[in-house]
Amino acid sequence: MTTGTDLLEIVSPTNGNGHGEMAKTAPVAGIEGNGASKLTSPDMLKFINPASGNNFGELPMATPADVEQAMEEMRTAARIWARKDVAARVAVLRKFQKLLIDSMDEITDVINQDCGKSRQDAMIEVFITVDMLDSYLQHAKH
Length: 142
Known about the structure:
Blueprint (H helix, E strand, L loop, with lengths): L3 H8 L32 E5 L6 E6 L3 H20 L2 H17 L1 H12 L3 H20 L4
Antiparallel strand pairs: 1-2
Helix pairs in contact: 3-5, 4-5
C-alpha cells in the first residue's frame, strides 16, 4: 500500500521539474522534504497570485492521514468507475463537459487568481479541455 511518504516521492522527484529548478516538496504537513516527520501543528498553504503577488487565502496542508484517506477514497471511486460500461462513462463525461461550459466564468476566475493567467488564456484552457474530452468521447467504443 502506498503511504503519504511514498506519495511525496511520486509528486516531488529529486531529479527536478523540467523548468530549470528542483521540484518542491508536495504540500503534506508533518513530513519534511526528506520524508522525516516533524512535530509541528499543521502548516498553512498560502494562495498567492503569481501575477500580482497578492495573498488571497490559505488552507491547512494535508496530513499523512489525510493523504491516506484521500487515496482510499480514490481507490473506491476507481472500483465504482471500473464497473460502469462505456456508455455510462460517456454519459458522465458529457455531463462534465456541460458543467465545464456552464461554469466557465467561475473556472476562469479561479485560473486567473490562482495562476495569474489572463481571462482569455484561462478560457482557452477550458475550451481545450472540453474539446479534448469531446475527441476522446467520439472515439470511445459504444
